[in-house]
Amino acid sequence: MVFDPSIVSYEELTRLFFEIHDPTQINRQGPDIGYQYRSAVFYNSEEQKKTAEKLINILKDKGYKIATTVEKAGQFWFAEDYHQDYYHKTGKQPYCHFYQKRF
Fold this sequence. Notes:
Enzyme class: oxidoreductase
Number of helices: 3
Pfam family, one: PMSR
Helix content: 25-40%
Strand content: 5-15%
Number of domains: 1
CATH class: Alpha Beta
Oligomer: single chain
InterPro entries: Met_Sox_Rdtase_MsrA_dom, Met_Sox_Rdtase_MsrA_sf
CATH superfamily: Peptide methionine sulphoxide reductase MsrA
Organism: Kuenenia stuttgartiensis
C-alpha cells in the first residue's frame, strides 16, 4: 500500500486508522501481544504530527483513553512475502479489525 495524498488526505487516513483498530490497548491488538503490536501513528512532517495529535485530543475529549503514540517516521522495511496481499490470501477476512465510528 502506498499513501497518495491526491487520493486520500493524511487526516482521512488517520481517522480511519483510529476507527479500524483499538487505540486504547497498550502493546497489543486483540490476541496479539508485544511492542510490535502497539498502536502508533507515524508522521513525515510537522503538519502531519499536528493532525495526529489533534485527532488524539478529539478522542480523549470524548472519553477514550488513547494509548496510541505519535512517532516520526523512520526507516521503512517491507514486510515478508507471506504478509503481502494478506487480505486476499486469507479469503478477504479481516484480522483483528472492526470498524467503530469514533469521529
